[in-house]
Write the structure tokens for this entry.
Amino acid sequence: MAHVPREAFVPEEARADAYADAALALSHGQTISQPYIVALICQALELRGDEHVLDVGTGSGYQAAVLAELARDVVSIERIPELAAQAREKLAAAGYDVEVLVGDGARGVPERAPFDAIAVAASAHELPEPLYEQLVTGGLLVLPIEDSLLAVKRTEAGARARFLSLARFVPLRPGLPDD
Ligand code: SAH
């Protein structure tokens, strides 16, 4: 995280607060997650450097940048096209080779699956089945369900969930903005 210039991912007017351990407002009513939560998600994903990772809810692109520092490659998906376009630009400008797609991340990205690890930055009522299905056996998925951040491991014997922290996230919304 010390390598990632968070100031490059926050809106211009929030630059002075870029290194506060706080969530900050983005456009379209979305937020860039608190650094502590980004760290907790990355730690729980147990990345060693050779993973193929899916990041759901690109937002500012900051979480994707941190994941790109820790894994082999990162695919990120965002439902709001304007946020995806901005994040794509910011990630490229900061030197991160992250593929940013526009779409409903609750469906995962079947054409890039399976993933070794999946990070979700928007809260659902229940585990989106396609995301679990797109994990390798032994893979980890970190996601908020309501206000609980969970780590879910896919095992031969089924899903094993572990509670990580209480945390507030924006809602995981179905479909695209004008669906
Ligand atoms: N990881 C981001 C956090 C952004 S907030 C960061 O580091 O800045 C969560 C993001 O999830 C928002 O941008 C929101 O638009 C997006 N989102 C919500 N529902 C989604 C869905 N179904 N598919 C993809 N993105 C979604």
